[in-house]
Amino acid sequence: MTGYVLFRKDKLGRRGGGVILYIKESIQAYEIKLEKEAECEEAAWSNIVTGNSTLTVGLVYQSPNISIEENEKIHNAIREVSKRDGIIMGDCNNGHIQWTSLQSTGREDQEFLNLVQDSFLSQHVLEATRGENVLDIVLSSQKEFVDNVKICEPLGCSDLNQIHFIIKVKG
Q1: What is the model's pTM?
Q2: Which of 123, 151, 154, 171 is deepest in the core (most CB within 10 A)?
Q3: What is the number of other CB atoms lying within 10 angstroms of the CB of residue 57?
Q4: Domains along the chain?
Q5: How do residues 71-109 score in pLDDT, each as one tens digit?
């Protein structure tokens, strides 16, 4: 896309899959690698320079049929990023979490909810993004980093709604 820098992580050994993170060219950003235990197959990470500070921004995809090992890596990545100023976005397929009441049904969903709470992250997507489920996340290490979250119609032939929001950081 013209005017944007592309950060991507392709699935290895397979056609299709992976994640793409676009950041405007006018924003100073560079790709980063996380610790080995947190290096995920379907996650892209970037640091955005904002004046005298840095904001880590990441995009993750947690497939419904994810392996136990890859799921643990995504959880490790979320733990690592939660220790810095950061925003984590993505599709985590945890459709049985009630984010407004912080309740869940199902073991995997409860593990993810515990991870978010134990990492002191704020979830900003509180409305359904596919059918009646909240499958998408916008997590931040500081609640004030994310503002004006809007759930919009799906883009193209996607079955997931778009999420629009503003990232607020000091310049």
Answers
A1: 0.90
A2: 123
A3: 25
A4: 28-167 (3.60.10.10)
A5: 999 999 999 999 999 999 998 888 888 888 888 888 888
